[in-house]
Each structure stands twice: as C-alpha cells, then as structure tokens.
What we know:
Chain A is mainly α and 263 residues long. Chain A has a single domain (26-244), classed as Fumarate Reductase Cytochrome B subunit (Up-down Bundle), CATH 1.20.950. Chain A has helices spanning 32-58, 89-117, 129-140, 155-179, 185-190, 194-221, 226-232, 241-244, and strands at 26-28, 234-236. A two-stranded antiparallel sheet of chain A has the order 1-2. In chain B, β3 (125-132) and β4 (138-147) form a beta hairpin. By secondary structure, chain B is an alpha+beta fold. Chain B has a domain at 69-239: Oxidoreductase, molybdopterin-binding domain (Sulfite Oxidase, Chain A, domain 2, Alpha-Beta Complex), CATH 3.90.420. Helices cover 26% and strands 22% of the residues of chain B. Chains A and B meet through β1, α1, α2, α6 and α7 of A and α2, α3 and β4 of B.
Amino acid sequence: MSPTVSAPPTAHPLTPGAPTQAPSVRRVRHHPIVRVTHWINAIALTIMVGSGLRIFNAYPAFARRGETFCCYPFEHREIPASLTFGGWLAGARNWHFAMMWVLVANGFVYLAFIYLHGEWRDLVPRRGVVRDSFEMVKFYLGRRKDHPIQGKHNALQRTAYFAMPIVGLMAVVTGVAIWKPVELAPLTNLLGGYVWARYWHFWAMLLLVALTAVHVFMVFTVDPYSIPSMFTGSYREDLSPEARNARPFRHLLPRKRARPTIP
Amino acid sequence: MSKLSHPAERLGLDRRRFLELAAGSLGATLLAACDSMGPRSAQGLLKFAESKNETLERALFSHRSMDAPPAGATAAGQHFPSYFVSDQVPVWDETMRGVWRLEVGGMVRRPLRLSLADLAALPRVGYKLDHYCVEGWTAVATRTGVRLSDIANLAGVAPGARYVDFASFDQGYHESWDIESATHPQTLIVYAQDGHYLNAAWGAPARVYSPVKLGYKNTKYLTSITFMPARNGGYWSDRGYEWYGGV
C-alpha cells in the first residue's frame, strides 16, 4: 500500500474505473476556524508584504554604509510603488508594526487549532513524501496519466502547507531581530548580525510570496471548486482534482457521469 | 449532508457568478490598497498598536543591552550620510549668536551652560557604534563624547523627570525621549566622530547619539537638553513616525 493512501473519508465514486453513479458528495472540508484564520492570514500577509516593500524602498539595499553586499543583485533599485502599501515610510511602518500582531495572533490560533483538533495529520509530511511529490510533478507535467491517490491533500500541497507556518515563523524571528538589534542582540547575532537578519527577512517574504503565488495559481487552474469551500466549508468530493483527474488548465469541468463499466 | 444546498445557490448565485463576484471584490480591494495609506478609520487602531508596542519596547529595554558592531564591519567614514531639515547645512554663526553653549535645564537642581571646551573637559568615552536609520540602513562610526548620564548627575535631575527633550538650531528640530533611554551607558553627547571634531554635515558642534534609538531620535546641532515630567513629541514623531523609536 502506498504510504500516501490514507483511509479515504468517503468513496471516490469517479476515480477512473469506479462503477458507481455520480452522487453529489458534499462534505464539510474546512472547519470555521481554519476558514477564518485563512482569510485573516491572506489580508494580514498582503498588508505585511506591501508595507514591508514600502519600508524596503526607503533604502532598497542591504549593504552597510561604506560597504558592499555580496548577495543581492538589485541594490538601490526600488520596488514598484504600485506593489507597496502605506503611502510613505512612517505610514508603512505603522501598518507593519500593527499588522504583525494580527499575523502572530492569527498564526497562533491556527496552529493551536490544528494541533488540538487533529488537522495537523493532514499537513505533516509523511514517509515517502519526496517520491509522492515526484509522482505529482510527473502527473502535472503529463508524464503520468492518472492522478495519484491522495487523502485530503496531495503530497505537494502537504509540503507547501507544512512549509507555510515554518516560513512564517522565519519571517517573525528575522523580523524581531531587525526590530530590536540592540535589545535582542543575541538573536540578531545568531542570524549573522543586522545586515544578514534583514536579508533573511527579505528572503522569508520572497518564500511566502512564492508559496502564495503557486497556491493561488493551483487553486484557479486545478481546483477552483475549492474556493467556495474556503468561505462556506462545503466541498464536493466528486469534483475534487483527483475525481476529475485534473492538472493545471486540464479537466476543469466536472465529469458528466461515471465511466460505464463492462459487466 | 448531501441535501445541503450551497449557500451561494440560496443567494441565487450560480458558481460562475459567485466566482466573478469573489474575484471582482478581491481585485477591487487590492487595487484600492496599492500605494495608499490604507483606510483613514484604521489610524486609531494604528495609534493603539503603537502605544502597546511602546509598552513592550520599554519592557525589553535594558541598560545592560549594549550595541557592538561586528568585528569585521567597516566604518562608514565619508560614506556616512549627512542629514538636516534646514534648506542648507546648519552652521552655528558666532558673530550672530555668540559662543555656542549647550543648555541643560528643566527639572534640574543646577542648570548648566556648557561650552564645547567644558564638554571636552568632562569624562570622555568613545565607542565604535552602529547607527540604525529608520530607513533600514546601518553605518558604523566611532562616537566620542560625554555620557548623558554624567551630565544628568552633574545637573542633579529632580526625581519627577521622566522625559528628556533634545532641541537644536536646525529649524526647530527636536525629539523627546524617555529618561531610561537617555541615561543608557551608550547614550552620549557626541562632539567627535571617527577621531575628529564633528563637521557641519554631521551635526557640529555637538549632537546626541545612542544606538538604542533610531537615527531620527538623535538630534544633531544640539542647543539644549531639557528634563521634563511629560513628553513633548518631536519633529518626526509629530509627523507620523513612532515616538519611542527604540532599537
């Protein structure tokens, strides 16, 4: 048995070859706490990234004055203002230092909830996650015909959703280090000093943006039916990507009926 | 469970319409957010967050936390930015204003008027320190001067003084501090940088400097130090920047 196969919560009537009719299987996919924290997170992260980029634009470089910095090719080039939030440096800082508490509190509620409620089991990587991720990539690239069997999430989703809070924690720790480089000097020094801590904070932002961009892309091109479920919680299992054998832009429409079987 | 009608359907929306509405409203929100100050109504919340942050920053603050630039850090030297709010570099004109003196007053038993020679005669300390600018850059310089705590002892600060204002001859530029930060061992009245008396671009004849405060809190072109029972804002603090500005 493949390690990715969790006991399916329901039968998947439309997996290829399944001989059943196609009943509309509605399930509560996301607990209200998960839905609320998801959208608070989306708003808070957008404001944190926008205001952070506005702050960055006040000095769009990493080098200490009178030095050069090895590892950022775009020193002194500003981020387009249309991607920023806060209007000016003080405005952006005020938003950044207020919204950070929303982000931290929201993250804490989310993590506490999935720990206490057991949802973490759908999110931690399992044995064989590398191989299963590779199978998903093969499927998405058309090198494999049928969607790998999965539980609530596929192996790539598991990895991404598991990485998100870790990168979030990295953003918080590096952020605290550049907020208080004197009062919390041991932390800042652990990250290589102020200049490097600021660089790692920038990278945490890049990773969060990258994970979010891929997530949003996949939602719209593979599983748009999951969007309502993030508002109402209700999800039709018979429209899942696994049931539709969906890859980006392919098999977006639900299958009309189950494949006829030969008695 | 399978009888549950979809809430969007109950609202008379089919899936396509729902997706259009969701995407449209999200897009409108994002567009409205671009390079804006955000909703006006949020300003009260931002002020509230600032006051809570100040409480936390004061709790984190310690006279034992010291700044120490990395061993390999290069001093900024001539790359150290100059900054002032006047139209041109503020210079103390002795023919117009007489000899420069630093006034130490407010809630003190012995008000002082210190000349540059008086300052130089006081116990001298020099530290290689980071300068943390609110913009995000740092610069390393050796700051030489007198500990503000020494000057405070000399003047005999009254027990009720909780704040200190640093005023300048740079077009009314000033910033007030909490007295705990002002008496930090690395808070100095600086008259020399990198081994030379300050030049006009760096705040001559004297300035306050401390690594525990962001650059804008460190008034240059200093004329007076006033011990006070209450804060009185500051040039940038009154214009939207955080008053505490701790590092």
